[in-house]
Structure formats: structure tokens, C-alpha cells
Write a structure and sequence with these properties.
Layout: E1 3-7, H1 19-28, E2 34-39, H2 42-45, H3 49-55, H4 57-65, E3 71-73, E4 76-82, E5 97-101, H5 105-114, E6 120-125, H6 133-138, E7 142-143
Parallel strand pairs: 1-6, 1-7, 2-4, 2-5, 5-6
Antiparallel strand pairs: 3-4
Length: 144
């Protein structure tokens, strides 16, 4: 298990377009190449240009607007769900790479508290630059 942060807020907003590549690098190194992307609410994500920048037009259309189950990029499969998807069923994240888009420190701590050690967590900071600094320090997360 490893924890990562991708800064994509404020002066780092250009990093939005590199998120998928960075996630693919991490997931490709694992035996299980499934990636679960968590958003606070799918309905809000449909209108969020930042999330479209992350996925690109085609993936955004398939995963967010049309709600396809999975979309593959090379050997990595992506699935998108609401934060609540893991709330009472943390086993759904087992052995996957989990990307949390624009979480608060409290939300990340809740995921980690109830999670398991087979999960690589990637937090994408999209609103306030440095908002997750305390989480990065407390969980020895690497900035990528």
C-alpha cells in the first residue's frame, strides 16, 4: 500500500491533464490493474470541467455521462463511483488503485481508517493548493 497526492489546484492546475498518465504508471506496476475513481457526486461531476480535463473528452463521456462500467487505457481499467460506494463496503477497493478526486482531509482519513492494506490511494487536490498537506505528512504520502 502506498499513498500519493497529485497537486492540481491553483498554480498546479495544469497537472489535471497528467493525472491519468500518473495513475496508469502506478496501476501498471501492480498485478491488479483496476482503478477505482471516487467523486463526491456523479451528478456534480458531469458539469465539472476539471474532471473532464482529467479524463479527456472520450473517457469523460463514457465514464461520467454515459456511466459505462469500465473503460480501459492500455492494460489499466478505470471505474468511477461516488464516495459512498466504499462507505460501508470497503472490500470493493481490495487490491485496487483508488483515486479520490478533490477530497477533504476528513474524507481521506475516513477512507484510510476503514480501508485495507492492499490499496494504493491517490488523492487529487483540485480546490485549494496545500489543502491536503497535513494528510500527506500524517500518512507519508508522496507528491507525484
Amino acid at each position: 500500500m502506498a499513498n500519493y497526492r497529485i497537486k492540481a489546484a491553483g498554480s498546479h492546475s495544469a497537472a489535471l491533464g497528467t493525472v491519468i498518465n500518473k495513475v496508469c504508471e502506478i496501476a501498471s506496476a501492480k498485478e491488479n490493474k483496476d482503478v477505482l475513481v471516487l467523486v463526491s457526486q456523479i451528478n456534480y461531476a458531469k458539469d465539472d470541467e476539471r474532471i473532464e480535463q482529467i479524463f479527456g473528452e472520450v473517457m469523460f463521456d463514457l465514464l461520467i455521462k454515459k456511466r459505462e462500467n469500465t473503460v480501459g487505457v492500455g492494460d489499466v481499467n478505470f471505474e468511477v463511483q461516488n464516495f459512498s460506494y466504499l462507505k460501508n463496503a470497503t472490500h470493493r477497493a481490495y487490491d485496487r488503485t483508488v483515486v479520490v478526486l478533490n477530497p477533504t482531509t476528513k474524507e481521506l482519513n475516513n477512507f484510510l481508517q476503514n480501508g485495507n492494506t492492499t490499496v494504493d490511494w491517490i488523492a487529487v487536490e483540485m480546490t485549494l493548493d496545500g489543502e491536503l498537506d497535513s494528510w500527506v505528512q500524517a500518512n507519508q504520502a508522496a507528491d507525484i
